[in-house]
Amino acid sequence: MAKLEEGKFEAVNGSPPRLRIGLFVTCLVDLMRPSIGFAAVKLLEDAGCMVEAPVQTCCGQPAYNSGDRGTTRDLAQRMIETFQGYDYVVAPSGSCAGMIKKHYPELFEEDPNWRVKADALAAKTYELTSFLVDVLGVTQVDATFDGAVTYHDSCSGLRELGVKTQPRKLLSSVKGLTIVEMNDSDVCCGFGGTFAVKYSDISGAIVDAKAKNIGASQAPTLLAGDLGCLMNMAGKLSRDGKPIEVRHVAEILAGMTDEPGIGLAKEAARAK
Amino acid sequence: MNVHSTSPQFKQNATRALHDPQLQKALNNVKQGFIDKRKSAADKLPEFEALRDAAHDIKNHTLEHLDLYLEAYEEKVKASGGHVHFARNADEAREIILSICRKADAKTVTKGKSMISEEIGINHYLEANGIRPIETDLGEYIIQLRNELPSHIIAPAVHLNATQVEQDFRRVHTHLDAKRDLSEPVQLLTEARAVLRERFLAADVGITGANFLVAETGTSIIVTNEGNGDLTQILPKTHIVLASIEKLVPTLEDASQLLRVLARSATGQEMSVYTTFSTGPRRSADADGPANYHVVLIDNGRSAMLGTSFEEMLRCIRCGACMNHCPVYHAVGGHAYGWVYPGPMGAVLTPSLIGVDKAGHLPNASTFCGRCESVCPVRIPLPKLMRHWREREFERHLTPASVRSGLGLWGFFAKRPALYRFATRAAMATLGFMGRQRGRFRWLPLAKGWTAYRDFPAPQGETFQARWQRERKGRTA
Ligand code: SF4
Fold first, then answer.
1. Are A130 and A249 in contact (CB under 8 A)?
2. Domain ranges of chain B
3. Ligand 1 centroid vs B378 CA: distance in angstroms?
4. Residue B429: strand, helix, or coil
5. Residue minimizing CA distance to atom 8 of ligand 1
6. Is residue B263 within 6 Å of ligand 1 at its C-beta?
């Protein structure tokens, strides 16, 4: 069970009902790596929350960043309705939480009715580690991980939501784990959604620089809080033949590392 | 006519840049030099963030009342004995400048660093009309010798190394001893100084840009580190100030606030080495100064941005911080952007000035990492404005068909949760099965761009929602 700071205890453990969390698992995690979603569920439940994952699709970010406001608005309205009844909405992704928090209100600038609802959803939506630390006051997690990790700060989480110290704070409570900072941990990995495919050679050059910094840190494990960035970096590291295990930070914090790292096969992981 | 653009070929330009080892080495200097210097300058000044807010407010206020400040400025320039000319576009600006030069019977014109002069292509125009323009900023001088556009708005020759410059000097300065030693950068600097010194004295007209125009006093302000701007505007009989209309600020106090963020954001200096104020022609009691003082105020697309979402771009004070912090700029350099203004500010400004049909790649070639916005001294939301361009392109059907149809398909499923769950469950099971042996794909048919540079990690197989339904249904509902 995650330990909470004093004073924040009653809110989740005392008489008022437990916080009801709507988990926005994000489409990438849903499709590519559900274990991250289950790690998030465990962390939230350990912190005393009640977690539900309503039927969901996508926050609309790919459409939004491609200039398709119409589709984005449709998807945003769906999201707003889906998550209406929850106390908080939590996503294991800074970029998807940032989409809801920073951009949904902008989408409905000219539509006061929806604007109110978008604002309400924005106000209660959080990235996972920042929810645990900033809202619940979690200071420790019950997990063990032997070895050094290096942490990449994904851009949206860092610059839209101020996620920087929260994951490090939680990681430093993991038994056996040490954090080794890489150079330029706050510089983009070159993913950028469709950018990675539309301008693949530029994206390739950016992730190349990132992979060099990761390698130079000597940490055998790379963590971050966004699966898109993680897939980009994992794909590059494996293409370069660098044996670095890549995971979402939630997997380590929840102590759920049975699944092989991103881009590794089950067999290879077992042989390890 | 604006200077020619290769922005439509952004992709090809970028690919060429990525395969240019010399350029890649030079770009490394941008990465290392500018970023640390800005950071330590910002960290040293506790009120830096508050100053950024003030800078933002000053520029916004000015833009809201631009007509009034332009009028006030014009009055003051006239009162100090100078002339103000308004040019709607590049053609008008060039003609005005040429006619001033003709009146001064000019053979040579010295020039301080000015981005607007690049925009209107004044050098080639003057040359074609028998007048010799000479750039006096070292970086501008070098790229003039090479017949290139600047690759950075404050460090025009940042894409070059010393050996390249040495070759250019040997090629052009043929009056000097062919056996002279130019192996040290300082020797290059000394040679450029000596050559330029003669040109300063011979020039009939001096053209400078302006960092700020002060409405209150009719003053133009330039900042330089080489002092070349001073010589350009003081020595010749005629001084022409070229400035786009958004350079206006209301008062000297406002200008000094902006100066405090400008140098820190640009080079990490507290102040540039020279900050020079000029107001009108030489008065009888002045020790020096030009006999004639002209200001050419150029619109060239700015007023059309007022009142639109791109108005915010007009706050730009041309510090270069956004490109210094841009991973795309670091990867491909300034020339890839294909016109005068590179990096994030160019990605927003260029489509406004030459058309999004020509410059459409620029606002798309961004990861939206947001680092530019986080350092912009006047807080221009550059990613948001790039997104606005993408929206305009989408509305005008300029978005590539492959992107449109891919997104359309995604949107179709994303709006239908039941179908989405069904389709994704099947697709991920297949992909997961195919990738289970290696855990990744080295090649995927629909993601060739991705797999050209990195592997594609295989999905775990079962979707989250499928497993959640299987394990949790009834437990939490
Ligand atoms: S957009 Fe901002 S950071 Fe970029 S050059 Fe202009 S003022 Fe500087």
1. no
2. 7-303, 417-472
3. 7
4. helix
5. B319
6. no
Give the one of A25, A66, A205 whose C-beta lies nearest to B394's C-beta: A66
Domains of chain A, first to last: 17-133 (3.40.50), 138-271 (3.40.50)
Give the separation between CA B206 and CA B460, rounded to whole angstroms.
68
* Chain B closest-CA separation from residue A133 CA (Å): 24
Report the amino acid identity of residue A119: D
Residue from A93, A203, A244, A258 whose CB has the most chain B CBs within 10 Å, to mutate? A203
CB A150 within 8 A of CB A216: no
pLDDT at A268: 53
- Give the contacts of A113 (CB within 8 A, at least 6 positions apart): none
Query: Of B94, B87, B93, B172, which is closest to residue B127 (Cα–Cα)?
Result: B94
- pLDDT tens readout for residues B169-178: 999 999 999 9
Q: Whose CA is nearest to atom 2 of ligand 1?
A: B376
Enter the pTM of the model: 0.93
Q: What CA–CA distance (Å, rounded) separates B292 from B84?
A: 12
Q: Say which CATH class B7-303 falls into.
A: alpha beta
- Residues of chain A with pLDDT > 90, as a percent, come to 88
Q: Whose CA is nearest to atom 7 of ligand 1?
A: B316
**Is A263 in contact with B391 (Cβ distance < 8 A)?**
no
Å between A242 CA and nearest CA of chain B: 12
The CA B341 to ligand 1 mean position distance, Å, reads 11
Structure tokens at B319: 């510090």
**What ipTM was reported for this prediction?**
0.92
On whether the CB atoms of residues B442 and A15 are closer than 8 A, the answer is no
The answer to whether the CB atoms of A206 and B464 lie below 8 A apart is no
Tens of pLDDT along A3-38? Answer: 444 444 444 444 456 899 999 999 999 999 999 999
What tokens were used for A146?
Answer: 């032997």
pLDDT-based confidence at residue B95 (cuts at 50, 70, 90) = very high
> Distance from A215 to chain B by nearest Cα, in Å?
16
**Cβ(B261) to ligand 1 under 6 A?**
no
